[in-house]
Amino acid sequence: MRAAVYEGERTIRLEDVPDPRIEEPTDAVVRIEQAAVCGSDLWTYRGMGAGPGTRIGHEFVGTVEETGPKVTSVRPGDWVIVPFRYSCGQCRFCRRGLQSSCVRGGFWGRECADAGQGQKARVPFADGTLVRALPDGSRPEESLVPSLLMLSDVFPTGYHAALRAGIKPGDTVVVVGDGAVGVNAVLASRLLGAGRVINAGSSHGDRNALARRFGADEIVTERGEDAVRAVEELTCGRMADAVLECVGTPASFATALRLAAPGATVSYVGLPHGVDVPMAPLFSRNVTITGGICPARAYIPRLLPLVLDGIAKPGDALTGRYSFGDLPRAYEDMDARRTLKALVDVDPRA
Amino acid sequence: MRAAVYEGERTIRLEDVPDPRIEEPTDAVVRIEQAAVCGSDLWTYRGMGAGPGTRIGHEFVGTVEETGPKVTSVRPGDWVIVPFRYSCGQCRFCRRGLQSSCVRGGFWGRECADAGQGQKARVPFADGTLVRALPDGSRPEESLVPSLLMLSDVFPTGYHAALRAGIKPGDTVVVVGDGAVGVNAVLASRLLGAGRVINAGSSHGDRNALARRFGADEIVTERGEDAVRAVEELTCGRMADAVLECVGTPASFATALRLAAPGATVSYVGLPHGVDVPMAPLFSRNVTITGGICPARAYIPRLLPLVLDGIAKPGDALTGRYSFGDLPRAYEDMDARRTLKALVDVDPRA
Question: Helix H segments across A192-270?
Fold first, then answer.
């Protein structure tokens, strides 16, 4: 089969790789239909992640092709959503909804696991990992597929940010960041009953419009101290009850912490790069820092009905659509911020 | 009247200062009966806080001597507990129990406010600040007074650490630190239903015994990586559901973060000195950092019955008792770790 391989800074190629097969009785093999490119794939693309020769991609949906003898929850032919990390479903972390810490779990593309931007993938612990889009395993409506694809990572990640921030009905929420996670954090804040959602840190008109479409009431185009002053003005000095940090850089983190009202929570969901937080300034304000890697598998069952019913349309953040052969161009466009997030149609015959 | 004044590194003197009087209609004047020396007073004592000439002390109890015309909740003669910060009781923060962020509040000994180690104090916003020990304002039993004194700061502070950590019944809690806040955090963890409380970071036999008396199941005498290994062993590698950081140094903070299980919370309640937390190592474990300055006024009403009923005896952490004239020696003994925490009987005629 063919799959995307990172071959060095700003070089992604489709290459021939071994076909996956059932290795453990709990495995399934999934034929990938659509994949997305994640902001974290871009870190790799820019040479700040795994080394050359690494398979890439971890957001994907498709059809079960084969299952091991111990798999009970899915059958060949089922249309499934694949979370961005596989998990056993049995350990103490999986049982309490923290599948991101599963003791047997792992990341796609690491330790001999297949990755998500390819024609197929062997899925370890199929019962603990895969989620059928519809109860009978049938194929969902075509128009829903991009939003279902967003359930593999970005929609749950935005939801994780909002949930961990403890948003209460009526709260003022500031989302820092204008990427796909940012707009999904806006959406999740809305779903959790936020009274007012401000999206901060973007002067990009298209992204501002998208944030509004996802539920932002106000846009603060400034960054840094200017953003702090803008939020001060918008809130009459009260600042935010919850701040969702969706960038992960030292500058955005520092801004997020300054936006928090006394007693507020700052929730982050992107891997922080080089971020050290000085504690003393938070002490007098009782500001909580929470978040971390999202246990997507825990949230998919609860967010799935919102997508199927058309209440949430996270797929609207997929602003570019590419054929499988055009996957390198998807990376180029995201890297140059020409598109927010890329959807790739995987061609089984390519 | 006479009051303690910080006069330079390791120099505290009792000096003549102006008698307090009612200045605002919401003021009260309190005659101080007992005061305690706080770990944060020691930072000042060691030259790492306010400058020479500063009045010191913020943990005190006593009797209302006079009230302004707008004070309705206390009368002259009432025996009261004074929280370590005064607060208006009316602003949006006071109303939601975050009196530590009161917009009109302040610290004892700063901005012309009296401090707590003296014969009297003018109490701004008496209705928002003072709490009668007994509903009728009468004097409590003598034996209860040290524990009531601990309600002004250290018991609520330990409780704040435990409460913010979100301790659930059965949880494994590690308290880092062997000071008065540490043992009170042990006590509070117990009150909130912790299944197992481990006190870490002290090889001081007397303090270990005190921690056990306050409810610690186990003592880890090691610090740093050795403490991490010891807790790993005690918990079969599972680590703590909640870690209460009660020291505030970079080393103790680093240890506290390492002791947290995936999904756990690290709660800190002492002003962190020079602590910067790198975020990346917390990301994969979803570790929350919370805490901050305790809104003592919010907790006094709920902890008071536990003290009056003898369920909680936080006063047992007051290991040294000093006359008013011996107050400088109280500082010397705490500084040299000869006593954990000093109680001072204030003599109205000294």
Answer: 205-213, 224-234, 250-259
Residue A350 lies in a domain: no
Would you state the pLDDT for residue B259?
98
Average pLDDT over residues A103-130: 96
Domain hosting A169: range is 157-291
Closest in B273, B278, B284 to A276, CB measured: B278
Q: Return d(Cα A216, Cα A226) in angstroms, integer.
A: 19
| CA of A3 vs chain B CAs: smallest distance (Å) | 27
When pLDDT is averaged across residues A50-54 and rounded to a whole number, the result is 93
The verdict on ipTM greater than 0.85 is: yes
Residues of chain B with pLDDT under 70: none
Distance CA B322, CA B328 (A): 9
Chain A residue set in contact with B, beta carbons under 8 Å: 93, 96, 98, 100-101, 164, 253, 262-263, 268, 271-280, 282-293, 295
Q: Give the span between the Cα atoms of A305 and B338, in whole angstroms.
A: 63
Inter-chain CB proximity B286 and A291 less than 8 Å: yes
How many structural domains are present in chain A? 2
pLDDT(A350) > 80:
no
Interface A-B, measured as beta-carbon pairs within 8 A, has a size of 108
Q: A262 vs B293: CB contact, 8 Å cut-off?
A: no
Residue ranges of chain B whose CB lies within 8 Å of a chain A CB? 93, 96, 98, 100-101, 164, 253, 262-263, 268, 271-280, 282-293, 295
Answer yes or no: do B216 and B228 share one domain.
yes
- Print burial letters for A323-334: b (CB count within 10 Å at least 16), e (below 16): ebebbbbbbbbb
Nearest Cβ partner for A100 among B272, B286, B293: B286
Report residue A118: phi and psi, to 5°. Answer: -165, 180
The predicted pLDDT at position B111 comes to 81
Structure token digits, residue A225: 């101290």
Q: Based on the domain organization, do B48 and B76 belong to the same domain?
A: yes
**What CATH number has the domain bearing residue B37?**
3.90.180.10
For residues B26 and A80, what is the distance between their CA atoms, to the nearest angstrom?
66
* Residue in B274, B286, B292 nearest the CB of A98: B286
**Of the candidates A289, A260, A286, the residue with the CA atom closest to the CA atom of residue A272:** A289
